[in-house]
Design brief:
Keywords: ATP-binding, Nucleotide-binding, Transport. The protein has 296 residues and is of the alpha/beta class. The protein is 30% helix and 29% strand. α4 packs antiparallel against α5.
């Protein structure tokens, strides 16, 4: 499996604080990967490292087979749309397309102009006078017309209304299907991830907590409810993610590739939102917690 992004022990420190720590991750090419985590978890740091906007303090990172931002050829492989969708307010839509053509050797002017036409954007309109949704769409157009191998999106729809957000994601998915690029999308909105992504990466407290194909992750996590039990008595292949107890009942979220045969348990599957929230809340409350392994 070809990796579009691969890290080993990656870390970024600001003075005494680690914004990202000991991150070992492999993201396969050709997928839309959702990156999720609370504020300060390290999401933007990871994206900026991948885009070559930051240099790592520790470990290594490779993007599209090379180190980020090591030269024009490597820069051409990655498109980046930041949360604030930075554009030049005094330049028109057409000016941005001309600038993109000058700066990007793989620029696809036909793709850019066709998207602008379909979106109904006035080429003469200055970017500073566009709505938030229009600015996001223009920024996405610039990222797509660059024809990157990897498109990085750092919460690009955070400030958009629900309709504009859905239209943005629909356009993104159409572009992915048409051009076959890989996407790394950061978002706080699980509904966006469910709509657009087939892989998931969860960061918490600057560390990687979970990574894998969404279908596989959902199939290998089970919510067990039954008589109160010490999680340490579970089979060795059942990793306890979270545990809660009343006087008589235990509720455990376990991760395992094997079927749950114990008849004492009532077994339920989780949706993506419940799965993500379980990992955001933190580790199991029992002393014994098996080491989390990244699911490839």
């Amino acid at each position: 499996m070809t990796a579009v992004l691969e890290t080993h022990g990656l870390g970024k420190r600001y003075r005494r604080r680690w914004a990202l720590s000991d991150c070992t991750l492999e993201i396969p090419a050709g997928h839309v990967v959702g990156l999720v985590g609370p504020n300060g978890a390290g999401k933007s740091t990871l994206l900026n490292l991948a885009g070559g906007l930051l240099a790592p303090t520790a470990g290594t990172i490779e993007v599209c087979g090379g180190r980020p931002a090591t030269g024009p050829a490597q820069l051409a492989k990655v498109g980046f749309v930041a949360q604030e969708t930075p554009l030049y307010g005094g330049l028109s839509v057409a000016d941005h397309l001309r600038l993109g053509a000058r700066l990007n050797p793989r620029w696809d002017d036909a793709v850019a102009r066709d998207r602008i036409r379909r979106l109904g954007l006035d080429p003469k309109q200055r970017a500073g006078r566009l709505s938030g949704g229009q600015r996001a769409q223009l920024a996405l157009t610039l990222g797509l017309a660059k024809r990157p191998e990897l498109l990085i999106l750092d919460e690009p729809v955070a400030a958009l209304d629900p309709l504009a957000r859905r239209e943005f994601l629909q356009d993104l998915m159409a572009a992915v299907a048409e051009h076959g690029l890989s996407v790394l999308l950061s978002s706080h909105l699980i509904s966006d991830l469910e709509r657009a992504c087939d892989h998931l990466v969860v960061l918490v407290d600057s560390r990687l907590r979970l990574s894998g194909a969404i279908d596989t992750l959902l199939a290998t996590h089970h919510l067990l409810t039954g008589p109160r039990r010490d999680p340490a008595t579970l089979p060795a292949d059942q990793e306890v993610v979270t545990a809660s107890h009343t006087d008589r009942q235990s509720t455990l979220l376990v991760r395992t590739a094997s079927p749950i045969h114990d008849p004492a348990w009532s077994v339920a599957r989780l949706g993506l939102e419940d799965l993500v929230l379980a990992y955001l809340r933190g580790p199991a409350d029992e002393p014994r917690r098996r080491k989390l392994e990244v699911l490839r």
